[in-house]
């Protein structure tokens, strides 16, 4: 494409759009219609220039012009409680539901990995010896040892806040680092499963696996599910870099990236609940069956939330993205 010829052919339209924008709200009905038409044409021109003859100065000029026009055409609005309600009842669960084919297999494979690591450690004394001295391992796994006292080592509120912060940080890292082809996500996931596997192996070798499961299941079901959702979403984002689908890579990453940011907020709330359970229920004096029942109930409520509310919203077309007025203009793809 001859850029000079293209600019000469369309400069008058851009100047006319700029003139209408400078006049603000003082437009007749015909002029307002003209502004909308010129805005749409300018957006197409920007897409063509970006894909066929990228020129930094012209691209910057048209980007600014299109952004100003979009702000005038769509207007601005402030976030409200309606946005928060929509996010919690549709946007977030829809995003989790749509990513289920990624985090579901991630959860299954991760649990199998943790069990395999636990079996390997529990059945191989030489591996246990490589982890720590026999006296240290006995101190960790004995009744009243470190594995049991860990959950009551600090005041419940302080411990819950600490756990929530750490887990929310890990989930956010999975979501953000997913863009790096998902490789950092795999490492974060492996480290988490390694820690679980070591606990399973050491406590099973001491004949106290039931105690370990009684301590980890009340909060671990919901906590690990949130981590799996974050990891699966991060891996999905990494795959988008490789295969963006029918849209441009930039558009696909923008859509799934915005959904991932929203998911980070939603998962922080989920992890807040699991942190409360870990801080107040896990170390409590409740019978083991009662503590595990609370954990199972929390997990089932989350899954029902995702598959009922999220499934309904997803089938209605909700992508887990921002609402249409809040998104950037989606430019046509030049042939």
Order of helices and strands: HHHHHHHHHHHHH
Rg for CA atoms: 27 Å
Largest sheet: number of strands, sense, barrel closure: none
User: What does the overall shape look like?
Assistant: elongated
By secondary-structure content and strand pairing, the structural class works out as mainly alpha
- Say how many strands there are: 0
Name the average pLDDT. 84
Q: Indicate the low-confidence ranges by residue numbers.
A: 324-335
What's the tally of helices? Answer: 13
Work out the helicity level.
over 70%
Q: How would you describe the oligomerization state of the chains in this entry?
A: single chain
Strand percentage? under 5%
Termini, distance in Å? 13 Å
Quick synopsis:
The protein is mainly α and 335 residues long.
Reconstruct the topology from this structure:
Elements lengths: L2 H20 L6 H24 L3 H19 L6 H18 L1 H23 L2 H7 L2 H8 L4 H4 L6 H22 L5 H23 L3 H34 L6 H33 L6 H28 L20
Helix pairs in contact: 1-2, 1-3, 2-3, 4-12, 4-13, 5-10, 5-11, 9-10, 9-11, 9-12, 10-11, 11-12, 11-13, 12-13
